[in-house]
Amino acid sequence: MYALEWRIWLKMRRHLMETGVPKVGGIKFADLTNEVQLQFQEHLLKAMIEIENTFFTLAENCQRNCLVICDRGAMDASAFVPKKDWEYIMAKNGMNPVWLRDTRYNHIIHMVTAAKGAEAFYTLEVKSRSYGSYNSGTRQLLSAYLEGDHLARSESLPAAQMLDDRAAEAWIGHPYFDVIDNSTEFDTKLRRMISSVCQKMGIDTGDRLAIGAKKVKFLVRSLPDDSKFPKFQDFEVVHEYLKASVRNTQPRLRRRGQNGHWSYTYTVRRPKINGQQVEVKTQVTQRDYNLLLGQKDDKHFTIHKTRRCFLHNNQYFQLDIYREPCHPRCKGLLLLETYTTIEGKQLMKRLPEFLDIVEEVTDNPKYSMYNLSLKEEWEITKHFCHKLEGPVDELGNPVLINGVSNVVLEPEHLNEALSKI
C-alpha cells in the first residue's frame, strides 16, 4: 500500500482487555458477577471507542491517504452479552446500532475461523520451546507470536464455531460486509481479503490480486414469510440520482436507516476496470446530504426500498424489496445481491434455498437501478444506459476531456464542492 501512497494504521485488539483469554490481563469473565460483567463490557466498549477515535482523528489530520484498520469493532461486544444488556448499554450511553455499526466503519470484513472449513488448522496446543530465562508467561507469549501458536484460543471446536457465528451476526446490516471463508488455502484467503479492501476503496491493483470477488444479482419471484429467513436486519433505503454534467458517470445519494437513525452516502459509479464495476463511496453528514439534494436529477424517480441483510452458508446477502411510490416497472420487484468469488453451479448451491430464484441478472441493464428509476418509458427515453463506458487512464482514473474530468463531484473533492453550493 505504500507504493500506492497510502499510509496504514492498525488499531490492534488489546489482549490485556480480552475477556475470554485465561492468564492474560488477569480477568476471567466467568469469575465476575452478572452486574460486574455488564459494567466491564460497558467500560470496555467506551475504551475501545476512545482508542478508535484517537486513530480516526490522527488519520483525518494525516497529509497522506490513510487507512485505519480496526482489529475488532464496537459491535463485536454485542455478540457476547444478552440482547437486553446490550440495548441497556447503548441506551445508557446515547448510542444506537446505525451509528455503532453502519456509520462508524466504512467496511466490515469477517475472517471466518479455521474451526469452520479448516478444522485441521484449529488447535489449542502451545508448543513447548526453550526461550532462555524468560518466565513461563513470557515464554507462552513468545511461542504464540513467533511460532504461530494460538494462546488466545481457549474454545473447543463447536464453541469456536458458535462464537464465530455470533460475531458475524453482530455485523448483519452493515452496507459493506464481506465474509472471507476457508474455501481456499490461507495465502489466497489473505489475498481475497486485501482485494476486497482495495475494491471498496476504488484502488486498482492490476493482476496482483486477481482473485477479487464480483457483485452478482438475482431476480427473486416472491417474498417468503419472515420465518423462512435466518437472522436478518431490515433497513429503509432511499436513493436519489444527481445531475451529471458529463457522460459516463452516475453520481447518487443514499439515505439508509433503521428505527429513526440514518447514515448518508455519496457514490460515484465509474466505467468498469478489468471487468469490475467501480463505485467510489463516501460517507457524508446529514447537512451535506441535504445540500447535495439540490443537485437532484429530475429525470429519475426517488427509489424507495426495504433492504434485508442476512448470512446464509457463510455468504452475506442483501435482498432489495422495492417499495412505492415508484414506476410501475419496480412494483413488487425483488433483487438479491452478494459479492463472491464463486461461479456457476457452486454459486447456485450457496444461494438461499428458501428463495425462488428466477435468474441471474448481474449484467442485465433492465435491472440496473439507474434505468429502473428513469421517469420516461424505456421505449422512448434517450437516457437508458446499456453499458457504462468512458475513457480512463492506465490506473483506471477518468481522463480529462477538453480540460474537464468526466467525473462529477469526485469524493476526494467533495468537501471543496460542498463549500461552493
From TrEMBL:
GO BP annotation list: photoreceptor cell maintenance
Gene3D superfamilies: Hypothetical Protein Pfu-838710-001
SUPFAM superfamilies, per the entry: CYTH-like phosphatases (SSF55154)
The organism's place on the tree of life at top rank: Eukaryota
Entry's Gene Ontology molecular function annotations: GTP binding; phosphatidic acid binding; phosphatidylinositol binding
Family annotation (InterPro entries): CYTH-like_dom_sf, TRPL-trafficking_regulator
Matches recorded under PANTHER family: TRPL TRANSLOCATION DEFECT PROTEIN 14
Protein name according to UniProt: NadR/Ttd14 AAA domain-containing protein
